[in-house]
Amino acid sequence: MAVIIHSIIPILIKRYPDKRKAIINLYNNSTTFQTVCEDYQKCGEALKHWLESESDEAVKRVTEYEELMQSLESEITYYLNKTTQKKTV
What we know:
4 helices, mainly alpha
């Protein structure tokens, strides 16, 4: 089986160092998890853009993307915890 290394994986491993194997396994085997991770990465890029923007709407967009980042991170954590719990039960 080929191992897919996507640019989001190192970011997630840095964020969740104790979940390294679960991150790689989920990313390689779950299209749903892949989608959530890719959305998380895109959201982070958009947030960075708006944080650097001097646009009038930047404050509003920063708030929206921060909320979305939290939601996506919660979803990623859910998947990681669900996978980890299965292995310990």
